Amino acid sequence: MRRTLLTPIAAGLVLACATASAANAPTVIPAQAVKTAEQLRDTAMHDDTAYRIVEGLTTEIGPRLAGGPNDQRARDWVVAKMKALGFDKVWTEPVSFPLWERRSESGAIVAPFPQKLVLTALGYSPATPKGGLTAQVVAFPTLAALKAADPATIKGRIVYVGARMTRQKDGHDYAIGSGVRVGGPVIAQAKGAAGFLLRSAGTDPHSRAPHTGVTGFTDPAKAIPAAALAEPDADQLERVLAYGKPVTVTMDLDCGLAGTYTGANVIGEITGRKHPEQIVDIGGHLDSWDPGTGAIDDGAGVAIAMGAAKLIHDLPQRPDRTIRVIAFANEEMGLFGGRAYAEKHAAEVARHVLGTESDFGAGRIWRMSASVKPEARGAIGQIARVLAPIGVAYDPDKPGGGGSDLSQMHARGMAALSLTQDGTYYFDWHHTSEDTLDKIDPQDLAQNVAVYAAYAYMAAQARGDFGSAPGAFAHDGAGE
To answer: Taking the model in full, what pTM does it have?
Structure first.
């Protein structure tokens, strides 16, 4: 038989063509992996591991304000729980951030009709002067109205913005409330305001539990006292303002920055047997706001990811790729855990084959979307078909961003899913004292675990990749 020898140039061309062919080949999930994923899905629907995790976290630890008294205790608890569940590797990665503390807060209408107001300080708000801040109120119906206002009408006053949110399955009205809460105080300060109030970024018009949350202040020297009014108290203030008389309010906030703090992301892995260096990311954020116990935001997300990984761990054979669970530090005050993770692992983005984070409560997942390379759309369709029987619809036209913390890795090029939960009532309780375990339905939580276990396992078994590469999804607008 005659043997043909290739020149080095020709050999290089052959290798390049082969590599390009592999890169353009469709990503496929083998039939046996699909069958196993269906079994995982069905098992998860009757598994209570995740519920027991979030029950333990919210009972034994409770509120987990970033840098607060329970920060270290929560990390230690999750490390111990991951080890008890049999994770192959468990470790922490440091995350540093400004330490903000809440000590006390109160408010009242001083004139013309004196009465108490129920409010809560917002993240990065400074304290009021000793004895409180008392000033006349100037009100705006929307953030746009505040932006357009003459600074002369604002200087020295307490700005109030009354924009309302309504219940939505996908929670899209949060763009209204969070926009006012984050941007409003900064705009008010720039126009000379003495303080800032907003109608809580929430959707229960009857609850006197005010919704806290972070502001957009980045320079303590340019921050003004800022707080959120409970919904009925915002209504009352607006009724008083409607009389047309000058309205004076007092705010007494004892809160503010107290140096820096170093916490950590907690990470656990089910190590892949064939490609341990290739990673499927799932997770949630471990911190919470302090008024409640952080059940829906985001104890549930941490529990969903841990519960899903435990089910995969219990299979007779490890998955081909590694399943990594990340309990992120300090999401609430500025995505510090997500940013730290993305910075540390940016050079490995191509090895993070697909990722998503659960951070929208514990309602049933009803929609899936994805940002992947075109050749992987078929594999996403396979995942969608496994999830369809438990109520998940695939939207092929909507990009996926990976969730709040993993959006930072997605921005660097990680392929990502968005698994959207039913958030109809999520913003009734979000960032309030009502964020407690009783808001979680165990069956709804189990459905979330079923989705995460099936998706993560199928991604780990896929033949081919999903398109992760530096800068691959920089312009799809899917950051969440």
So the answer is: 0.94
